[in-house]
Amino acid sequence: EAQVTQNPRYLIxxxxxxxTVTCSQNMNHEYMSWxxxxxxxxxxxIYYSMNVEVTDKGDVxxxxxxxxxxxxxxxxxxxxxxxxxxxxxxxxxxLGQGTDTQYFGPGTRLTVL
Amino acid sequence: QQQVKQSPQSLIVQKGGISIINCAYENTAFDYFPWYxxxxxxxxxxxxxxxxxxxxxxxxxxxxxxxKSAKQFSLHIMDSQPGDSATYFCAASGDLNxxxxxxxxxxxxxxxxx
Lengths: 113, 114
Description:
The structure holds two protein chains of two kinds.
Chain A: E1 4-7, E2 10-13, E3 19-25, E4 31-38, E5 42-51, E6 54-57, E7 65-66, E8 76-78, E9 87-94, E10 103-104, E11 108-112
Parallel strand pairs in A: 2-11
Antiparallel strand pairs in A: 1-3, 3-8, 4-5, 4-9, 5-6, 7-8, 9-10, 9-11
Chain B: E1 4-7, E2 10-14, E3 19-25, E4 30-38, E5 45-50, E6 56-59, E7 62-67, E8 72-77, E9 86-96, E10 99-104, E11 108-113
């Protein structure tokens, strides 16, 4: 089954404790991205990657890091989480860039205390 | 200039009625306009999309109307059903600053009364 998986689905952590949210896709997509969803603000892109070892900032990259060492994986790293990063996070993948269908993962709900 | 403005923020419609969600954009470089549907606890999924060479696209009960001159597009859900209750995101994408980006609206939470 073609899908994007994220782990964990739920995470409660404390300020400053480094965490990683994993994302994996099995569709051989080149393009992957991370979004955060907040009430009233919609989906905002954090980082995206057009291929292995190629990453770029989205609209709200501050406080986040990503890496793309393999085509299928695109982890999101919060080195020192803060309460304002409490949000619902989605990973997405697509064949190409914006004009291709984005396939979203199920989401990771993060709470930073 | 890269924003996509979506309205209303929330919408309540009676079963069998027509749900209408509107979006507007400014950047004429956008050339692809998808709508995504998100159910609670799930990620968004593509519902329907349109390119600016047509003014309307229909798939079942869902229709996109596109007005290129006004830089507006809308989603119409005919005969709305309780199962249509979800959050809807419009989006616009195209070659912006040599980078093909997709920009999402802020979403509309739709509730269909049984």
